[in-house]
Amino acid sequence: MSFYQGWIGQASCGCLGAKVSVNPWIMFTIDVAAFFALLLARPDLTPLWVHRVRILSVCSGVLGAYLLLLGSVAGIAHVRYGSIDAALASLRNERLSLQPALVDMGEGIAGEERDASVELTNWTEHPIRLIGGTADCSCTVLGDLPITIPPGESRSITVTMRLPKTPGLFNRKAQLTIDDEGFKRIGFRLIGRISRAAE
């Protein structure tokens, strides 16, 4: 990842958080050094090869048990909630889900307008109104608003964004305002890449 970010000219890879700026080529060098250090310090794997049949047998049993557990959980989720998505929403105590939470706006040039769709699902037993949106970027969803999402149903909205001016990768936060027994906000992120003028 750091190699790719260095290749496209990203100023900072974000590897150490948003407040620390680190050149991607420096992090790539550290990654390569760590990889070779792990190769040199790896343990002796000969005993694993000698007992490979027993190890494969144990691994197969563990994998089989895991798949059985996964299938049981999926079956219970479908019987109890109707779908895995509904079960996950219940576990997270989500009244309204937004998919995808990370919207890829693709690659474009500075100032270009891009559209993307997000889907909202109402898991409550009453209608939820989507009435507005706020963001720290040049994006809007006002063309589709306001909309009402009936109980147990989904609706798609279009997010229009004017791509930022700085070349490289971008990551912006946006929020929608909903009326769900009071005004609340639901957030998502917009990512993409701005090409240099010469590209």
Give a short overview.
With 199 residues, this protein is an alpha+beta fold. Helix content is 33%, strand content 34%. The protein is built from 5 helices and 9 strands, in the order αααααβββββββββ.
What does this entry look like structurally?
The chain is an alpha+beta fold and 199 residues long. It has 3 domains: 2-40, no CATH class; 56-90, no CATH class; 95-194, Immunoglobulin-like, CATH 2.60.40. 33% of the residues lie in helices and 34% in strands. It has 5 helices and 9 strands, in the order αααααβββββββββ. The strands form 2 sheets. It has a 5-stranded mixed beta sheet with strand order 2-9-8-4-6, with no helix packed on it. A 4-stranded antiparallel beta sheet has the order 1-3-7-5, with no helix packed on it. Helix 4 crosses helix 5 (84-91). It is flat. The two termini are 21 Å apart. The model has no long low-confidence stretch (mean pLDDT 83).
Based on the model shown, name its key terms:
Immunoglobulin-like; 9 strands; 199 residues; five-stranded mixed beta sheet; alpha+beta; four-stranded antiparallel beta sheet; 33% helix; 5 helices
